[in-house]
């Protein structure tokens, strides 16, 4: 590799007259005892300082003291409430690292026994409270003794992924374990492990997180490698090769090692070395402090930056020039800034006491961005200093002033990334902070380069201000009909469900996962957009139309039905409660507006009804819109929150959500038909009443009603009887038994009349077929027989001279029917309506006619009794008159 061809020497370190970030606030913290800062951990809204009290050259006091620095400047005192073995406090074996954004990890060795010494990791919360203690690995024994040097834990930058534990297994092999998540004992779970080999014995390595839970592993091959454990400083060495491997612990793969730099220039050595990357940039880079030793023994130093992609291909090498640099670099650090970019800090020794700290802000690609204007009164007298930043836009520097105090100097943090915190994203629709109309169904994202879809998700959340974001839709990036790309491949259009933005005046945000999108040319996965960057609001008002309470049906899948049946009886109602709660979250809607009723069966699937109450206040969605949204959410459940809850995931997507139509809406034709029927009968009644006022013409209604009721009973048994468990048998019994009894009764009444009533017999001889017909019809209700005597419409056939006795039989027979037919049937109808979820004409009409008939009978019985009472009264009156 010809190095000089890569050199693009640009003057980057301008002499800035006025530093950009110059207003500093200082807080001095006095320690009452001799405590010095050993390390700091940046938890975004707070910073944890690890304090130690040195005892002698090699050991510190066996206690882990913490100071918690909050964003508002308040400092709390804490300590880790778990005692790790004392030997860890000598030679700096134990280490503390951040874990996600609320925890600390303490890496330590449990014993000094060569046979059993093992690494453990202690998990504590940020205040030092013990959570768990997890075994990691045995301590390597190299050359007959325990070797703990170079063992480290690397935290991932974001909370989604875990940590990488690395240790020298032998002189030339580094073994790693990837750990993430907590098991039921709250121990950290070991997910995967592997090995990386080194070119030089104990060659130093760095591990640094990349995107999607992957890490880059950098090592270099050099005779005078900077090694914490083996101190050597021979500036004549010329062999220097940097290797990079790309570890994918979740996917269980490794790419590399790739050589990214190889020095062939004589008398050039590398003094210090840092590498950086951000999730945001497509590449990583390393900065090397080069030391060229001239013949006159005066060494000259400069910084060299090497940029490379995850594939190992180096695309840029440049030299930061313009930097006077003859001093000893004690410390070189690269700090990832919250709003993008880096702070590169160099601690140089200018004379024996005073150290000189210099800082430079770099952008995401590692290029010069600005100088860091340090406080003018800054004196870094110790080697310790720490840089950090809060997510409130403050950057700070912590220095140890003396043994009893330390100082925090803070200033504003430069905002290097764009508002999406992702330099690849150019703009979006909706724009950050903009308003979109509710039910917007397209969003689009424009990138700064041609892109293509990859695999991870685009996820839309509603921010309900209570801190719990509501998932609205999650769309996997793999190409589908939801997506389309613009002609230049730079804009992605996404069709979202209309139900996604369904709340007016609500806050929404969209999260793009890392590797949802790839660079079209290099195929490199691109970083996404984190939560709370792409925020916007919906505007518009709800359709102010009021929609009354309504209901609809949905179905459980075959699996869901099976799950429900296998639940113990007492868990079944709990399941529905949970289902209701989850539906309320998925729509989203106030849970008090929903009610679920069980169940009907259709083709082995449970069908449930959901009642939706009308909205209580203006900001809520009306019932009709809720029904429309719910249907869409269920039909598109793959990407909607319906599939996110384990209960709602049992809902059948193909069935959707069907509104149970308003009864009168759906059955208006049936009802019109019935009305026409009633009017027709009424007209007929009117006509015949006018012509033959003497007849009991009202029987025409009773007759129609009784026949209709019977027809409906039969239809009901045939069509609906098997829809609800346990309805069929009783309805058959309460239909067949009364019918049979009625027929027997009517036959015996007729027979009795024939034999005992001469007038009737005479009439009967002329009208046998009519009598036969009515005897059978009387099976529906014995009162039908009364028609024979009614002279309805003046038809002479209907003037049968029935005896008073027979009339009384009919009366009592009909009274019996009340208990064996009408009341039981009404009860069955009511039970049925209560147990079913769908309205239908047949059960409704059956219920209606049963009720009318029953009411009619009861009322007529009451009248009859009154008449009877009156007769008795009159008789007794008469007898008293006679008596007096
Ligand atoms: C720290 O100590 C110095 C000198 O002893 C004193 O001037 C300063 O007020 C103290 N600061 C605090 C915050 O106690
Ligand atoms: C430092 O102190 C520890 C604990 O008191 C002691 O075991 C160790 O020998 C001391 N080391 C030196 C170098 O004095
Ligand atoms: C962030 O917190 C610091 C306290 O450490 C405070 O001084 C600063 O004003 C805060 N910055 C913003 C932008 O709120
Ligand atoms: C250290 O841990 C190892 C592995 O769990 C165990 O075998 C050993 O007994 C432990 N030693 C001590 C002193 O606890
Ligand atoms: C291992 O031991 C051998 C012989 O004692 C010694 O030459 C070698 O330098 C040692 N290696 C390390 C890495 O300590
Ligand atoms: C977006 O793209 C335009 C045109 O290519 C460019 O001028 C602009 O700087 C880009 N904006 C961002 C924020 O990247
Ligand atoms: C983004 O989407 C909106 C709404 O669908 C559309 O009007 C607009 O033209 C799109 N913008 C681009 C740059 O394609
Ligand atoms: C993407 O979303 C699906 C569900 O829609 C989920 O199962 C998957 O885990 C998500 N992928 C990532 C990387 O979050
Ligand atoms: C966009 O991508 C498609 C498919 O990957 C490709 O055929 C087309 O040439 C690309 N267009 C541009 C302008 O890069
Ligand atoms: C859903 O998950 C919760 C908690 O994870 C569990 O308690 C519940 O039993 C699950 N319900 C179903 C229907 O699987």
From TrEMBL:
It comes from the Eukaryota. Residues 1-22 form the signal peptide. The chain crosses the membrane at residues 669-688, 700-721, 727-751, 844-864. Keywords: Membrane, Signal, Transmembrane, Transmembrane helix. This is SbsA Ig-like domain-containing protein. The lineage of its organism: Eukaryota, Fungi, Fungi incertae sedis, Mucoromycota, Glomeromycotina.
